[in-house]
Amino acid sequence: MNKENFFLQNNWHKVNLNEICIKITDGAHHTPKYTEKGIAFISVKNIRDKKIDFKNIKYISKEAHIKLTKKCNPEYHDVLITKSGTIGRTAVIKTKQEFDLFVSVALLKPDKNKVNPFFLMYSLDNYIKSIDIQQTVKGGVIKNLHLEDLRKIEILLPPIQQQEMIVIKLEKLFTKLDAGVKSLKHTKLQLARYRQAVLKAAFEGKLTEKWRTTNLKKLVEIDSEQILISKTNKSNSSSNRRLSIISQNLGWTMMQICNISEEVKKVKPSEKPNEYFTYIDISSINKYEITKPKKILGKNAPSRARQQIKTDDVLFSTVRTYLRNIAFVKEQNNKQIASTGFCILRPNKKIIVPKFLFYYTLTNSFVNSLTRIQRGSSYPAVRYIDVLNQFVPIPTKIEQKEIAEKIEWRLTNIEKIEKYIENILLKNRILKQGILKKAFEGKLISQFDKDLELNSLTSKSKEDVQINSANADIKTKQARLEDFE
What we know:
Elements: H1 3-9, E1 13-16, H2 17-20, E2 21-26, E3 34-35, E4 39-42, E5 47-48, E6 51-52, E7 58-60, H3 62-69, E8 79-82, E9 90-92, E10 99-101, E11 105-110, H4 117-130, H5 133-136, H6 147-152, E12 154-157, H7 160-202, H8 209-214, H9 216-220, H10 224-227, H11 238-250, E13 253-256, E14 261-262, E15 276-280, E16 285-286, E17 289-290, E18 294-297, E19 305-308, E20 314-317, E21 326-328, E22 337-339, E23 342-347, H12 354-361, H13 364-371, H14 384-388, E24 391-394, H15 397-439, H16 447-451, H17 462-484
Parallel strand pairs: 4-10, 15-22
Antiparallel strand pairs: 1-12, 2-11, 3-7, 4-7, 5-6, 8-9, 8-11, 13-24, 14-23, 15-18, 16-17, 19-22, 20-21, 20-23
Helix pairs in contact: 7-15, 7-17, 15-17
């Protein structure tokens, strides 16, 4: 049976949203005066995961609320969809609490004799996922789904009883999927904590405790360069006092980066106007790696393109340090040009192992000490000298190498698990889209389902099997993480 015959036989028909909604409007077109308490004022940031987040909100006065409700009055079981900025987040209102909307959120009041509110929400999800937002909606730099476009959106509408059955089936399947996603996000948080725990243990000497015991003789044979390290190099930073005491007890030395790094000379790519060079700015860094360098003609060189990097350098972004735009320079990036938005740390290899320095810059101790001294509210940053003045614990080079290897092994395994998780999350998103598509093609519920009571929808389907398989993969990976720890 082709689609058209199926829809005709089962009383499905195309309608636009204006035909099945009593009202389609949006929130306030001006920014109201906020108050400390009052009526909640909701924008795009407060709508996610099919819910309205009332935790991080702004408030307006009762008087302002009364004026706004004349145009837009959100009520229980109305449908919301974000229409500018981030387009397509949807939610059904499940509270009777009073609140108002900003212009970025549209309000749909469904005619409940024609359409189930949750069916309408899922129909909008299916529509948004089936189009290319950038190409379909109006707007230039700021993406915007206009109300006139929203009212004209066409959906397939089955009889109300079938709508309810589809909603029950979707929610049953999505509840399983969402439980798996929640579990994955928890695992990702565990990995983030474990990464920092590894780094903390490494620079407190805990990863090499057994190694030091079995390599005592090697530790006595310290490089001559190590003996020359000044014992007057002491950290005065309160954030480093604990680490300084630990280092002292281990026989390590605390040294400022400026004393263990080499000078980085400035260059001018514009002096070779007709030659291309490879440029690295902050947007080129992803997950501590240089992933998206740009090819630029010398005559078009940005004013910040002034630092030539070398293999084994460490790039540390001085802007918004808490974002951790940090990278280790590999061979393929040798002699490329970096922005002055980075502090380039070029390790003196007679004193410090490059990877050891790189891993230390990833620690909370290092990043937080710089974040605390950032200047500027709209463009918070630290100075080059602020980074160079930071202290680093310095064990012998042979122990540095051992520590770097132990960190690398652990972080590599963490990255493998993270990639696996991202892959499962992607599969889950694809599976969710596939389920939605089937639902609105009439394939999610069979004729047999339609002839039974609604609670018969608990029977196993192909989608149930796929979701159970995905959740089994999650449990397997979590078990691997526990073994790894």
